[in-house]
Amino acid sequence: MFRRAAFLVLLGLLSISNGNTLQGTIDVKRLQTILEENIRSKDITTLYYSLRGLVQLNANIPNICEDFKTIKFDIKNIEQVFQLTNAAALSGCQNSLRPDVLATATQVLDKKDATIADLYHAVYTLKAVGKGSVYDKEDALKNLIQLLKKDDSPANYGYVFALCEHMGCTAWTVTHAEGVLLAADESDSKALHFEGGLPVTSNLLSSIMRSYKAQKKPSPLSEEQRYKFAEYLLSRRSVNSPKGVTLLLEAATALADDVPAPISIAIKGKKYITSESDAIEFSITDLIGRPVRGLKPDEVIAQSGTRLADDVVVLSKQPLTQKANEPTTFVLNLSKIKAQYGLYKIALSAGSKSTSVNVAVLGEIQVNSVEVGIGDVDGTTSPKITTVAYPNKLSEKLQADHLQKVSLKFSVRDKWNKPVLVQQAFVRVGAAVGDSETIYVAEPDNTKAYKIELNVGAIAKHLNYASGSYSLTMYLGDSAVSNPIAWALGEVHFNFGKDANAVGSLETSTDKPHRGPLPEISHVFRSPEARPARLVSDVFAAACAAPLVLLLLLWGRLGVNFGNFPFTPSALVFHLALGGSLVLYGFLWLQLSMFETLGYMLPLAVFTFLSGHRLLRRLAQDKAHQR
């Protein structure tokens, strides 16, 4: 298990960082197999694209003319009629077609509201059976341009570019292609494609590339566009339908035939070398796995090789060798560094293209022996040393208590007995019974010797204070090591003193680590305080009401003088509003909330303010007249 984990780490570190190269190619053999498996399909769409793809690959096509007599299709569907006639043309079976298949195409061309897609299918249906061009070039192009003004989607531009190939107006395509290419959508700053996915992207790329070649014009694609379109096609290389396969092949071939073509540099086979094998193979191809045009073998060079551990340059300007009878395979010999295990970054160039790749030089490590010592924590006595040789175990069970420490000292060496450092060096302390364990990392000193000290009293808390037998296991590994080591050293009996438990027993102390579910926490709200006796409440209420009762008694004794009360609307409204406010205040104490009270208080306050202001003005005027 440890070996497998270390190997997975190695694979994760070995990757190519592409600058202006691809990291894969289209698997043409797999795609051809899919097409050949569907060549006898009774579905017209599947049959058509299977034939179209095999023709693209220059593959042998069986005699399937009898199949056209029984294949089912909708004669009113212009796309299915297009697929039928073109499948017959691709397989040389035009004589097997029904004579009425052309009627649909003629009807489409006579329609005033025909779409661009329908016009494309109709024109190429007639072309498939040798009827030639039925369009006047100038009028047809004007008509197509008018239709594009209504719907200028990338799909429609693809159909128009394809129609221009038939009508001889590829010059118009060249004038408009760059604008269409700028409308491509970008995904994650890595891939370009058109709205509509693979069908639209394939149709546009294929028709544009053919049109530029017909006009003998240089490619309209920049290097960045080529690689981003290629990245999109690589993301679709898992297609498994004949239609998807054919469209992918056509688009990939159009890019691969472009100049300069996108190229792929990838490690072929193993990504590491050992002392027995000192070569790494690279595959350098175009997008569809062909040799790169114009690439000379002496132009494939490892510009530099750098050890990642210390950035030391270990090789420079080393040419690769082209493998015999395999023009796409180049071999890099790393025999000069096979004795220095580790990870290396190789800067590789193929012509004007370059990339970087990480490779590993795997080495073997060994541990001759480990010194296991047990001594006092304070160092008052010399530790008792026990030496154990790999892969043996301790001959006896060691004993250590909470006042002692266990030390381990060892060195890791390579195949040539030189001390080396590894990425992983640690010791696991695990209970013989139960699942208690703790892991400690071994640190190297200046001489590259590893040492680790286990303070028994300090590790007790990590082992639940459970005294008893524990196993010691050493683990050594590295992403560039071919033989990681897992060495069971033996057992040690730990005694953690007065606070110890027996191994496997339950803990009773509340201040020690606890395993298992904790007791349920239940929250209890504080009980409400006891209310006072009824007599106390009544006396308090009477004391609060006493001033009001006294006021009423005094008014009754002295009498109430209403002689100066201004019986005017403003005075009545003011006193009613003021009384309403006092009543509302009472309701606040009895049943209303603060927000409800404020809602009622707002209109009362307005009436009180306006009427009060008017009343005061009236009183001031009356006083002035009396003077």
Describe the fold and architecture.
The structure is a single chain. This protein has 627 residues and is an alpha+beta fold. It is built from 16 helices and 25 strands. The chain folds into four domains: 27-259, Alpha/alpha barrel (Glycosyltransferase); 264-361, Sandwich (Immunoglobulin-like), CATH 2.60.40; 365-502, Coagulation Factor XIII, Chain A, domain 1 (Distorted Sandwich), CATH 2.70.50; 551-626, no CATH class.
Name some characteristics of this structure.
alpha+beta; 16 helices; 4 domains; flat; Glycosyltransferase; Coagulation Factor XIII, Chain A, domain 1; 6-stranded mixed beta sheet; Immunoglobulin-like; 627 residues
Counted by DSSP, the helix tally is 16
Number of domains: 4
Count the E strands: 25
CATH architecture of the largest domain: Alpha/alpha barrel
Evaluate the radius of gyration: 46 Å
Major β-sheet annotation: 6 strands, mixed
Helix content: 25-40%
Low-pLDDT parts are 1-18, 503-512
State the CATH class of the largest domain.
Mainly Alpha
Strand content: 15-25%
User: Overall mean pLDDT score?
Assistant: 86
Using the coordinates shown, work out and report the CATH topology of the largest domain: Glycosyltransferase
The SS-based structural class is alpha+beta
Based on CA inertia axes, which overall geometry fits? flat
What is the distance, rounded to the nearest whole angstrom, between the alpha carbons of the first and last residues? 114 Å
